[in-house]
Automatic annotation (TrEMBL):
Record-level Gene Ontology MF annotations: hydrolase activity, hydrolyzing O-glycosyl compounds; xyloglucan:xyloglucosyl transferase activity
Role noted for this protein: Catalyzes xyloglucan endohydrolysis (XEH) and/or endotransglycosylation (XET). Cleaves and religates xyloglucan polymers, an essential constituent of the primary cell wall, and thereby participates in cell wall construction of growing tissues.
Protein name: Xyloglucan endotransglucosylase/hydrolase
Organism of provenance: Corchorus capsularis
Phosphoprotein as UniProt keyword: no
Region (Disordered): 311-336
Amino acid sequence: MMMKLSYLGSALFLVLSLVSVFVSGSEKRLPILSFDEGYNQLFGDDNLVLHRDGKAVHLTLNERTGSGFVSQDLYLHGYFSASIKLPADYTAGVVVAFYMSNGDIFEKNHDEIDFEFLGNIRGKDWRIQTNVYGNGSTSVGREERYNLWFDPSDNFHQYTILWTDSQIIFYVDNIPIREFKRTASMGGDFPAKPMSLYATIWDGSDWATNGGKYRVNYKYAPYVAEFSDLILHGCAVDPIEFSSKKCDTTQSLEELSTTITPSQRMKMDSFRRKHMTYSYCYDQTRYKVPPPECVVNPQEAERLKKFDPVTFGGGRRHHGKRHHRTRASRAETDSI
């Protein structure tokens, strides 16, 4: 878990610019960067506001615009993390994204690794979506969606992407929720080119909540997503002249390139049983045959089929437009 830090009044001051994380079962302390050390504003003018001497960033969506920031460097593999607190109340149509991409450089064959947080109507929980694109393979959506075991608008929670040459692992509060392994059958569809890290908030009314049924209602604006504990722990490279071999032999990255421990895997399996609501591998309306990297789990397939027999049982349904871009206690966490 992240270290508890000293408070002075209502303001939070970092005693040490380090955060404790658990990677493959072992605790590591990684450096936290201030905004000016690692990021630039992407868009949004004064809808991006820095706090705590640049150690925290507030991104706002209002009727005028959303907002976002991007890392100053591109990275080939690494550990990328942020503690995020999402907007509360009515958030239908709102999308908060924490993701990696190189679409601004490789427009026709870009890579992407996504955390997307999809808002909801009042009384309904935020949903979280992960997705992976490699080499421009946007025609094959690799989405998974989940509910969470806590309200992400109540407090800060840590969301992490661990990216190596052989796998991608998504973490929530140091618990792995998805492992995406590189396979020979994927060909070039695994992200393999340097990417920047992005964080954005924007209006996704056309698709984000019930396929666009519920849209952003600016009566509840401004919507503010708060980011802190920003970690960029990767191999910074030139996007054109880069060496994957050099990056993969970097000592700091080798320490992060281990597998999920048995204990972590038990927690991941439990999370997926309880909270996963969608996986592209079982979507028979989109894929008559699962994409080649999918490993079909019969128990998982049966559970999702009961959850949505049309999508996961092979029934017919008209599909709307798919967007391209795509109250926790410790006891609850331990039970995942």
